[in-house]
Amino acid sequence: MSDTNTGHANTGAPFRRPLAWQDPAFDDPEKLDAELRRVFDICHGCRRCFNLCDSFPRLFDLIDATPSEVIEEVASSDFKSVVDACTLCDMCFMTKCPYVPPHPFDLDFPHLMLRYRAMEFRAGKTGFADRALTETDRNGRLGGAVAPLANWATATGNRLSRPVMEKVADIHRDAALPKFHGKTFVARAREPATVNAKAPGFGRKAVLYATCFVNYHNPGIGEAARKVLAHNGVETEVVHPVCCGMPKLEQGDIQTVVERARKISAELLGWRDKGYDVVALIPSCALMIKSEWPLMLPDDAEIKRLAECTFDLSQYVVDIAKKNGIADGLSPLQGGVSAHLACHARAQNMGPKAIEMLKLIPKTEIATIERCSGHGGSWGVKTENFDLALKVGKPVARQAVKNAKAYLASECPLAAEHIRQGTERLDAPAARSWHPIELLAKAYGLI
């Protein structure tokens, strides 16, 4: 792995380089420090990302506070604060940075932050609470087994258990946490759905990758997806081999992510070979399959094949509408929708598919919010990050309040709930948050 600039003139489309996580130089402290200084110096001179996450203000303040305002005078130990503020939303790479490959500067800020975390993880510096939060399948099974008790204990108003969680697990007492369900989405999906044989899309088949969030925490999203697809003539199967590894990736545990990628791809491609389209229900998981896995395993033909045939859920519904036609029966949603574009949906570089999907609903005003919610997965619930996460997401909450729509939606359920909490901080009326597929199901009268 080289830390030198080897790119050519910036004459082609932006692209991401494979993640050289198996190269000994990847987590070599000296080589990593040199690359951090190179990149941070470029970022300090540019500052286009100042209004994204808190990583950039922290970086700029570090350098500006030195006597000569140069990166050479910043202590390496101070870099950790910059890394810790990164949510891996990818928005700097996707929407702001003019120096991504093929530019000779060859910047990929999110993957540099990941490289630092991978170094910490391999060195055993990742804390117990952080590692425990990434065990989403285990946590989902345990919480689901005692769902009423687990939901009581994790409720934000619980003054008995939440202060204890804050001390023991580093989870802020005011952060809204996902609910648990005793019956997973996979279990619920064993009941067959009646497929509409009169729909234009009749004959299509799709395997739904349940994702750990939908499977254990919000099966309603999956049920709405199945109902909408069945109404549009699509036969569905539901599988959840294991979590896609996004929480593990956030902590730098790349080896585990790779192991999971191979396991999930083997099962999903088995369905693909039987004629099923592959659909991921949550944008973060779709992004892992489409982008992150192929960058970790660039020579794996099966990983590449899965990436090329996987749909994000909203993308799939739009594909049906364009290629086959959407089924009849949609009614307007009175009061309109304030729709947030999730960062990991935007990072898939497929266009605003959630907005396209919602615009299929007749006579319904859709107000788009295109900015990071600030949540960042498990990052946003941690004690040291929660207030900062709300601060980063405050412009989104303000826009949602200003839009004054009847419905608040985001493809990322964690982002949607975080925005809802942000609107409460602005003394706006409390309202539940929705996934766009739930609103489509509601417009069909299916829920």
Give structural notes:
With 447 residues, the chain is α/β, with parallel strands linked by helices. It has four domains: 29-122; 128-169, no CATH class; 185-323, Rossmann fold; 337-444. The protein contains 23 helices and eight strands. The chain has helices spanning 29-46, 55-64, 79-84, 91-96, 109-122, 128-133, 136-145, 147-154, 162-169, 185-188, 212-217, 219-231, 246-250, 254-272, 283-296, 301-309, 313-323, 343-346, 353-358, 386-392, 394-403, 413-425, 436-444; strands at 205-209, 235-239, 277-280, 310-312, 337-340, 366-369, 407-410, 433-434.
Overview in brief:
This protein is an alpha/beta fold and 447 residues long.
Topology of this protein?
Layout: H1 29-46, H2 55-64, H3 79-84, H4 91-96, H5 109-122, H6 128-133, H7 136-145, H8 147-154, H9 162-169, H10 185-188, E1 205-209, H11 212-217, H12 219-231, E2 235-239, H13 246-250, H14 254-272, E3 277-280, H15 283-296, H16 301-309, E4 310-312, H17 313-323, E5 337-340, H18 343-346, H19 353-358, E6 366-369, H20 386-392, H21 394-403, E7 407-410, H22 413-425, E8 433-434, H23 436-444
Parallel strand pairs: 1-2, 1-3, 3-4, 5-6, 5-7, 7-8
Radius of gyration (CA) equals 22 Å
Strand tally is 8
Strand content: 5-15%
Mean pLDDT: 94
- Summed up, the domain count is 4
Distance between the termini: 52 Å
Q: Major sheet: order of its strands?
A: 2-1-3-4
Total helices: the number is 23
By CATH, the topology of the largest domain is Rossmann fold
Structural class: alpha/beta
Largest sheet: 4 strands, parallel
Q: Helix coverage percent of residues?
A: 40-55%
- CATH uppermost class of the largest domain: Alpha Beta
Overall CATH architecture of the largest domain: 3-Layer(aba) Sandwich
Overall form: globular
- Ranges with pLDDT <50 over ≥5 residues? 1-8
